[in-house]
Predict the structure.
Amino acid sequence: MLYIKCPHCGMRSQNEFAYGGDATVKRPELNKEISDSEWNNFVYLRKSPRGKHLELWQHISGCRQWIKVERDTLTHEIFKTFKAEE
Amino acid sequence: MSQEFRLDKGGFINRDKKISFKFNGKQYFGYEGDTLASALIANGVHLVGRSFKYHRPRGFFGAGVDEPYAIVQLFRNNETDPNIKATEQELFEGLRAESVNCWPNVNFDIGAINNFFRMFIPAGFYYKTFMWPKSFWYKLYEPIIRKAAGFGKASIKHDQERYEHKYEYCDLLITGSGPSGLASAYAAAKNGAKVILAEDKPRFGGSLLTTDVNIGNQTGVEWTKKIISELKSMSNVIVKNRSQVFGYYDHNMLVMNERLSDHLPKTEKYTPKQRLWYIRAKEVIISSGSIERPLVFGNNDTPGVMLSSAAKEYIKVYGVIVGKKPLIFTNNDSGYETAIEFKKNGIDPLVLDTRNDPKSDIINEAKSLNIKIKISHVVVTAKGYKKVKSADIAKISDDKKHLSEIENVACDCICVSGFWTPSIHLASQSGNKSTFSEEIDAFIPDKSKQRETTVGSAKGIFTLEETLENAFESGFNLSKKITNNDNKISVPSVVEKKFTNHDKFWCVPLPKGKNYKRFLDFQNDVAVSDIELALREGYRSIEHVKRYTTLGMATDQGKTSNLNGLQLVSDVENKVVPQVGHTTFRPPYTPISIGAIVGREVGKHSKPTRKSPMHEWHKKNNAVFVDAGIWLRPRYYKKGNENLFEASKREAKNVRQNVGVCDVTTLGKIDIKGPDAAEFLNRVYTNAWLKLPIGKARYGVMLREDGIVMDDGTTTRISENHYHMTTTTAQAANVLSHLEYYLQLVWPELNVNVVSTTEQWAGAAIAGPNSRKLLQKLFTNKDVSNESLPFMGYTEGDFFGINAKIYRISFSGELAYEVNVESDYGNFMWEKIMEVGKEFNIQPYGTEALSTLRIEMGHVAGSELDGRTIPYDNSLEGLVSKKKDFIGKRSLDKAAFIRPDREKIVGVVPLDKKTSIPEGSYLVKDPKAKLPNPKLGHVSASCWSVEYDNPFSLAIIKDGKNMIGKKLYALSPLKNKSIHVEIVSSHYVDPEGKRVRS
Amino acid sequence: MQKYSVFSLIKNAFSSHKNWDLAWKDPKPKSEYDVVIIGGGGHGLATAYYLAKEHKITNVAIIEKGWIGGGNVGRNTTIIRSNYMHDENGLFSEFGMNLWRNMSQDLNYNVMFSPRGIINLAHSDAQMNVYSRRGNSMRLNGIDAVLLNREEVKKFIPMADFSENVRFPIFGGLMQPSAGTARHDAVAWGYARQADSMGVDIIQNCEVVGFDVSDGKIKGLRTSKGDIKAKKIGLCVAGSTNILAEKLNMTLPIETHLLQACVSEPIKPILDNVVTFGAGHFYVSQSDKGEMVMGGDLDGYNSYSQRGNLPTLQHVLTEGIAMFPFLSKLKMLRTWGGIMDMSMDGSPIIDKTHIEGLYLNCGWCYGGFKATPASGWTFAHTIAQDRVHELNAGYSLNRFSTGHLIDEKGLGTKTWIS
């Protein structure tokens, strides 16, 4: 079971969190004219590297904050966790 | 009955406490402290079971967790457990066990006929045959194979035992209480670390229980006792026996299974049978020791052939001798220890040593005891069927390739020692890539990947002196890192016998003209010839070999067979072992009961049950409940002999004619507050939200970014910066996370806060033409007229002294209100509504009537918003703003979504006005068309329209817009129904929506 | 090639099984092939087999990084079914079912296809309706499906929890009687043996390092065993798709996740069918060895590790006991993990790409094993004819732009939720 440092609450076991996927996905701004492919890339394309992965987790059974976690997808080692705005 | 093989003294058993037990129906006696295995051996029983494939007789091979043979069906406290290792099962009064995988009995087993056909059924034979005729595989061959497979029988009774879980955090977890575990635990504990010491066996001490050594002027056993009692007295130490650390998971989370009751006749009250510990350790010391390797020779699976360390353990721990005419077959010094133990107890062993010139202290000691030793000798084959009777032995050439003349020697057991294999399982599970040690011909842990340190023989250190030194050091250093203390214990002095090198030889060649089976995997009957065949056929990777032959896939997981298998592959393939590589070790180290893994979440507790505050009222009033996610909701309230159909019809009708009340507590509720709340809602919902006045509710639809409808519900503006959102019961949690995602990550500039208030409010929907009259009586000093509280209006009122929120919203399509009070008042509110509503013929209605009401109104719900539909499909396109942007909007212009014949919701009425259309039916043009029959759409929801007294359904069909008035067929092949139907508007009742506004 | 049969088995017994041929050879790669299939898993091997058998293209190599059959074809729960609601999935899978039914004879290798029936349990009327929709769709597509009520379910699996002490009672279920299981390794080996015999080079322990693409055309690939020219290349590396796609500068609508499974110790036959739990995600069948083979949810975060964690298994087995209380007394013997290509609508991709001569077979989510023959057959067709077959037309890469999604579960792009 992963051991995740919530930047707000401290070390907590994985079962307090919900996964949120690739954290580098950036939603296009509202009302912005963008191409179909730009939009579809946002909706459907994810980074899924073997190795370092910046991903979202939500501390759902804790402070309910979405946080960013830098984790290795091969070893599951967590390098760093960040607050959403960091 | 006498225990013929029990020594008069010795062992750690309690000879004052005799225990009776039954094996295969026969009564035996043993002592407290015995295992089933030791007690059976004491009674001279060596035939325990039959092997998997050839049904060859099986006895005991080991004395613990590595046992491949002695698997029994256990009967305990009116229950039965399959696949129990006799070597692990402690004896208790009244224990009953039976052999498995044999019929009619273990002595005479029909299945043993396989043994005679074994030449025809080598590894993988089933891939090459049973293919003709085609249907015979699953009609004939497979059923026979299935029946033959498997060991014990599962009990189908519900498990009455209790299993618990515990979470623990510690500085150091130490897995195994042999010398290295004790030393490191002691050093770390004395240095102030929080330590957990886990021992799988009932007794602490590991190898110290069976070796003659001296530590600090005490025997190994005395030293163990001293250390354990001191550790137990320390508040920073948890010491657990019968506790197997079986899994090393991510981030130093280890899992240990503590067996509290398996050794007792029955589980005591308020005690679990087993307790699973999730342990998060800062550091882990793996001190799980090593397992002796077998030597491989002809018929080496005959009962009576066993590990020499096991024979020694039976003598030293249980005071039991495994035979009176022992043959010791060894390639290293360990065999001599066993020989000496026999000799000390008055039994003359014969030692065959594969080495040609072995010299060491222990050999000298053996010689001085007049133990007969034959060097450069091997066992060629064991003789005897159900028990070893003799052995063919021979001198072997120095190159280990040629046997000289064969000689037969009588013996009743053959104790083999092929040197030691470190138990690297936990280290390997932690991610540690092991490395092959040429010195010990085995894998040892390499660089740590997690916070793990292996010590003692698990690391390939086989001298006690070095083990203790290393373990004390590790315990101290690791604890110092955590506690910063500097309290170092000095390493005690050690007296032990020094061993010399082992022989790398492990597999005896076949004599000319003989084709003895030489087994590697004893449980799965995998012999040397099987591996050779696999390699010959091109199954060369170790994984191919394993899968093709089933090597190491038995319940012992290859603890005794894997390394020999690897050696063989490397020999045949002319590679070195590390090139062959080993298969991966994964948890669990030993099989763990599924009950223990699951814990207390069984039966009714397998998932939480959520109930509304009015639940007890519903129950008292004959509600029949339905699971809505994890909520329980009244489906209908049964009157007399009514069934679901009759009751729901009555309830729905009463709503249409009088007034009904429905518990809507389960709806998700989210409080949305902040100056940017309106802007936020405007982005979340498809429709416009910037101009919603205070005191007004609005229906909204929210999408996922891919344009699919996520949820719908009403949101009410309570005050300037405060909104109250409702969601469907099913999506409540998802919607909250969704909102938080956008607020925290996408639009952090919005000054809005959201919080779930689902549990804060109890809700009652009051619906029907009489609902206003009722409401007026519930809120006597409040003006609830259509002018003051119009459709989609909101107000607060005094409900018999408590504050209530009144929303004029409607799911039923009738004039309706939703009253919310704080949860604790929910039942009070409900009872009051029922009491006051009596004069208006109020009746409670459940989810079934609610469904009927919404379906005939054409209101969509979960069966239409199924994660695949866009607003248009549900005729919600009117709610999709063209002016503003919102979540998912950009996806709505995808080609498939704007197709002219895009699916749309419609109503469906059977032409005969009688036949209900099963939900999940499909609409087609031609009911008799050739398959696959093209589908126009599916029936998402059906009801009996109480308004028109005929069946009515909703369907989502292709080109729905233009299908109104067309006649189609609704097909449900599952229910053998083909119904001629007419497509109508989905708004079947009150299409102008007059009632809700009345 | 030697023919396998009971007669050849007996004949060989008398020569101590010393005269069996290699099931497949271990050739060195040639410098050029008409088609190179990357990935020696079930799908890759099947593709090569059907290229040779159906399209007579035999100058083919399979490039495998490790050993054949070492990916998900060797680490699944062996379930074979076509019980899908969407037409694309149903018709594709049913085509596969017909290949399964004849596979042992076709390959002359007993893959032990065992049509023991799959039962999806339902725990509410609403769920029965959802299953009806699926079952009716199957029936209209010519696939067998039966709706069972509670009593009928009980006849098949009397040891399921029909007691009062149950959180989610069994209402009934949807059964596909012709669904079943097969011996997974045998599928890989059987395809390999036949492909090899028709001239396909199976090249193991050969890692793809890069690709040679020029003018929008594939020219070849670079491997740890040297450069290989190829007119066409097919990617069949579910679980590693993203790694290879990166080498081609492609980003795909796929996330990589870890799925665990486990078996109990072997017990005497107790469960004949494959059964799935409806109030969660758990499936179980009993193997011919007697082990209960069980699986369920993903571990729930991107992973290329085959190391799973216990809480997921705990959660899965909790549902197992909720369905079959007798599982409580069994012991979990072995666990393993597989790496999944999780596509953004839960359905696979078998298609051409923007690079001429490069073909894609990926995104199999949970359903890769059972799709092995149909995937190989349609992929071989797509490669050989340079156009998709109608069976895999729906599995296009551009469906994510056009909106023609095939979302059986209706869960959208959160691939880790099941």
Summary: The longest strand of chain C covers residues 331-343. The first helix of chain C runs from residue 6 to 13. DSSP finds eleven helices and 18 strands in chain C.
